[in-house]
Amino acid sequence: MKIILIIKGFWNLFLQSIRLISKKNRDIYKKRLDICLKCKYLDDSFCSICGCYIYAKTTVNYKIDENNKSIDGCPQKYW
Fold first, then answer.
1. Is residue 73 part of a domain?
2. What average pLDDT score do residues 24-28 get?
3. Domain count, the chain
4. 76 in a domain, yes or no?
5. Is residue 47 included in any domain, yes or no?
6. Are 55 and 39 in contact (CB under 8 A)?
7. Dihedral of the CA atoms 36, 46, 5, 2 (nearest 10)?
8. Which domain range does residue 7 map to?
9. What is the pTM of this model?
């Protein structure tokens, strides 16, 4: 399952680079990336907890829980 999310993340990163993602989603991804870039668990563009490449991970459309946090997104529930 994690490999599918990684592939989706890289696909969305590609689509974002050629501007095929809506402005709303780009704004969400930017907010997530800003959080990750300030996180103490950031290790050279990778999350040291889950090992994901944050530039791709932040672009995945995760399901949202009742607290408006992503399910299977940020392991610390920062976003």
1. no
2. 85
3. 1
4. no
5. yes
6. no
7. -120
8. 2-57
9. 0.73
